[in-house]
Amino acid sequence: MDTDGHRVMAKYYRPKHNPLSTPLPDTKQLSxxxxxxxxxxxxxxxxxxPGGDVIIYDSYLALYRHSLDLIFYVIxxxxxxxxxxxAALNAYLDALSLLLRNQVEKRSLLENLDLALLCLDETIDExxxxxxxxxxxxxxxxxxxxxxxxxxxxxxxxxxxxxxxxEKMQRGFGPF
Length: 176
Hints:
Blueprint: H1 33-47, E1 54-57, E2 60-67, E3 70-77, H2 82-99, H3 106-111, H4 113-123, E4 124-125, E5 128-129, H5 134-141, H6 155-173
Antiparallel strand pairs: 1-2, 2-3, 4-5
Helix pairs in contact: 2-4, 2-5, 4-5
């Protein structure tokens, strides 16, 4: 969410891995967009001021971090391990910081939304925390950049390529 309480990016998971697929009696399902927006608005009202990092809101455990003009949340049931949620949040933010070159702000996040979503998918898959190493997450997500500064094309490399092709052709077709 941004600092005005508007959703920038959100991903909700339905626990397929939970053998007790029935929700806890005192928690909401948050299955509709209206319920999600109302939950996010109430959570933002409680966490809009920097300072804290964990809160129990509406029977959910919410960990959050402020970053310039954004607030990042990881939310789970109250019975969830707080340290694991914290490790997931820190890993995601550190990997995002590596990918965005320490410019974790709303504009750069929206410009690189594909990287942010891939980063989230590498951290949490279907509601299960799968990776907490930020460098591993960033390396899986980062795009290989074409570095043309190491490729030097000059007359000698072209002649070398021509000679190699000529030799292969002579071996394959006879004299050339």
